[in-house]
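Bit of a strange request maybe. I'm writing a small parser for structure token strings and I need a real example to test against, not something I typed by hand. Could someone generate the tokens for this chain?
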Amino acid sequence: MPSANLIERLASLRQDYLSRLPGELAIVADLARRLTNSTEDHATLKELHFRLHSIVGSSGTFGLTALSTECRRLEQRAKAWQEDAATRPAPGDYQAFIDAIAALPGLSVAPDPAVNNTNLAPADSPVPHTDSLPLWLVEPDTALAHDLQRQLQSFGYDVRCFHSLKDARAAANTSLPEILLLELPPESGEYPREAEARLRIGFSAIKCPILILANSNDFDSRARAVRIGADDFFPKPLEVPRLINRMAQLVAQRRSPKLRVLIVDDDTTLADHYRLTLLAAGMEADILQQPRDLIAKLAAFNPELVLMDLYMPEHSGPELAGVIRQHERWTSLPIIYLSAETNLDLQIEALRRGADDFITKPIADASLVALVRARIDRGRQIDTLITRDSLTGLLRHASIKEAASIEMKRAARSGRPLSVAIVDIDHFKKVNDTHGHATGDVVITATANLLRQRLRQSDIIGRYGGEEFLIVLPECSNADAEHLLNDVRQRFATIQFGRSGDEFSCTLSAGVASLDACGQELLSAADAALYQAKAGGRNKICVAQKSAPDVGPDT
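Reply from user aminoacidic:
Good idea to test on real output. This should exercise your parser:
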């Protein structure tokens, strides 16, 4: 739920708008009285169109639906007369227009209290970054539950097993998990078909991903999982690496940074309403105050989406969108117009000039939040496809090297500690040769997931090579980095790969280098330290004490 402070600020903003509205309507009425039904009316009609257009969006947003609807009708009439000066309206039409504007205050006295009183809670509560994540496993097969518990604990999950859903529901009265693994209840028996739709409601307080484990992989079982509200479906026998990888993705999504939105609208009250609405939904939002500061604002705030009004007095939306598209860094930044314009041809023309979508004002707060969230989430998915390794979900080679360079420059400027580490899977070629490349991929994926689980949220991880990983550790000394990676190394050695009867384990080696000890040659120093760990028998962490030549490790 939004905080009480945000709710109060939204209410105060609405009241402030309602108190200023009579003055704005008086200005509109004064403009209408100046009309003479002659060619001299062009400037007045233009001003009337602009002000009526503004009232359409703002009055609808603050609950004055009837006023918004009437102002839209009058705005369109003013615009048509302005654009077609050669054809003058009949005197009766002009007088009816003036009289309708004079009657607008009568439509501003009864705002609808239900408008935009929507629950704007964030889509998911953020997952705290802790040493272990509480995970509940509801699995009646005791042997499977214990085996799965052992494997999941190696990846940093604090696993609590339950024999039945009833037991788990009872435990929810005192504690809650971050992920729920649930065996698909039978269609008959304790949880009949008609109860399935209410299964999620039974865990309404949990607000966490639910993954279904099923004895059958048929369509009906999958459909039942959807009705339950499951986030994914895993048939038995379980592909444990895929299960772990999916859980890591879900946790990463819930730990992802807040969505960032920049609002460009000359109506400061309406812009502030949008900002507070997005803040209440758990996003970050800011307002561009001066159009000339647009590019500087983009660089400072780094938004993932721009909400922009179409009509503004100094610079139009398409004009500002065009300026944004002139900069290579912002060519793919989503731009959405928010406008009371309903002319489809004009909307299409505006979209052709650099924007991605068009939303007609007024828009309900909940709809605005949903549209913004969907657009940014989709953008993040596309960015992941471009910058992330398809097997592990980690940054690709070029992206992690760029991240390391940025962090080294930042640390050098601030004087803060920074370490990097290159981690390598020992004897990985033997894994591929003995167990096959598919199993090798499982080992690589497990390494990536373990690194994600055990490292800090501020750390940056990438797949540096085939079985090598590069880790950037801001605010981390050599000693702290060594301690952190030793924990990862020890946990990795306990993971069992392969199937029953053909199980095996692997080890990791790593080289660590810090900025204060190695200067700007961090990657070369970490690589040399990794070579030292390999030469010293593997399954160990070595720390570089000074700059070293660029020597590749012997895998």
